[in-house]
Amino acid sequence: MITAFIHQFSSAKSFVNITEKLYPFFLIVGVSMLILGWTWGLLFAPQDAVQGNSYRIIFLHVPSVIFAELIYFFMAVCALMHLVWRVKLAAYLIKSAAPIGAMITFIGLLSGSIWGIPTWGTWWQWDARITSTLILFIMYLGILTLHGSFSNLEKADRLMSILVVIGVVNIPIIKKSVDWWSTLHQPASISVSGGSSIDPSMLYPLLISVIGLGFTLIALGILSSRSYIFTREKNKKWILEHV
Amino acid sequence: MFNLAFDNFNEILYMDGHGIYVWSVYLIGISIIFLSFLIAKKRIVDIQKKINTKNASS
Amino acid sequence: MLRLVKAESFKLSKKLKSWLGPLLIMVLVLIAFPLSIDISQFDLDKFYFSIIVVSLLMTSFVATEGMFEEDFEDGSLEQEFLIEKDFYKLVLSKIFVYVCLIGIPIAFIGALFSFANGVAIGSFASVFLLLSLSNLLLFNLFAFGNALSINKGAMLGVLSSLPLALPVIILLGTAVRSIQFGDDFEAIITLMTGIGLLMSAIMPLIISAALKTHID
Fold first, then answer.
1. Which residues of C touch A (CB under 8 A)?
2. Measuring CA to CA, which residue among C127, C158, C143, C171 is closest to residue C66?
3. What is the ipTM of this complex?
4. Could you tell me the residue ranges of all domains in chain A?
5. Rounded distance, CA C38 to CA A73, Å?
6. CB under 8 Å, gap of 24 or more: what pairs does C126-129 form?
7. Phi, psi (degrees; rounded to nearest 5) at A48
8. pLDDT tens string A60-87
9. For residue C210, what are the β-bridge partners?
């Protein structure tokens, strides 16, 4: 029964129809929240006592590393759905989310590097969290290469899903092991369990930019998944309504 | 909370010497995200064209 | 099971290049490294073990490359699937044979070189055990990478399985640290034995799932 339910709501056709309607909402809300959060953060938030103005990079850096990991977990959920229930749409979503994940991880690494120059005096440190983010970036590249190297796309979908699932098991292991190995990064400033060590005047713009970047990335994901679904299902009849 | 943290426009750009880092990060980040939107849009248009020509010829 | 182990070890021992090559690479790297630095300025015993770790990673990657490729191309993988309906036993015995014929000799060479260069560790046996265990882990992980990329070359294998192997390297890195501080590293050996057993049981399941995808 559960399989029938999933298959009914996971056809590529209904996905394209629903997301087509939601796309403007996500894009407009996301971009306007980003503009709000970044203007607030860049121009109105007070200077940091220790790091001066260079801390303002946080409003791009923290959201991007948050989504670098969230996108991977999203892909892992999709991969399980693809392996267990053979949902084709899930594989399409993995394939279209992976480049976005790689892009946002790259932005996170780059902004962190540039932030490191004025703050730590060096653009790269073999620190635990930087290293695990770098490994995450390599994993995204691996997933993309794996999918790209098979001409049989169904086979590529399955293998990619297996790799994504193994990778998500690997992420906490990598995190723990590099933590154990060395750490220099400041501990996470916001925690879910309350008690964040950051002033509200900096926290609010940060939260706004996190949500804004999330919505923007969902909009981007909708676009990229639509193009990939069209490519994969180009021989189906329902496509004709969308061209 | 809603006071400008800077006195004038030059200071906003300069940010006590950190301006170059801050602004270059945002410039690169925004342009990468914007570029990926453009690429995604272009891909959709391309594949739509492809499907259209295929259907017209068959 | 015994039949598979026999067949695999026969196949591997026939392919001289596959099992002698990695051993020679290991020896060459370990000889080449001291030649490439100014030996009078560095304490070789402090960081020679790191070079052993890195060359262990490289050689085990080279050793497992094309682990399933030949079987896939000459059709014996499909034949095996028809007999057993599953690859669990095949993968298990393949990894076992590879570890015995390549992994353990590599670990022996590594232990020998670390001993000869005066790496300050308690005993030869413990280093040998540490390196053999890490080879067991690495061979399992690289076998997975090979099963994914079966005949698509090394680049894909590196990208897909090297991130998985990095925790093993970090584990060995902590061993290096405990060497420098003169601590014993029994805890690390125990931990690695546990992970190794767990992984040897679970990885063949995942690898056979990946191999099945290639067959049908």
1. 144, 148-149, 152, 155-156, 159-160, 162-164, 166-167, 170-171, 173-174, 206, 209-210, 213-214
2. C143
3. 0.88
4. 22-184+199-233
5. 47
6. C126/C184, C126/C185, C126/C186, C126/C189, C129/C189
7. -80, 140
8. 999 999 999 999 999 999 999 999 988 8
9. none
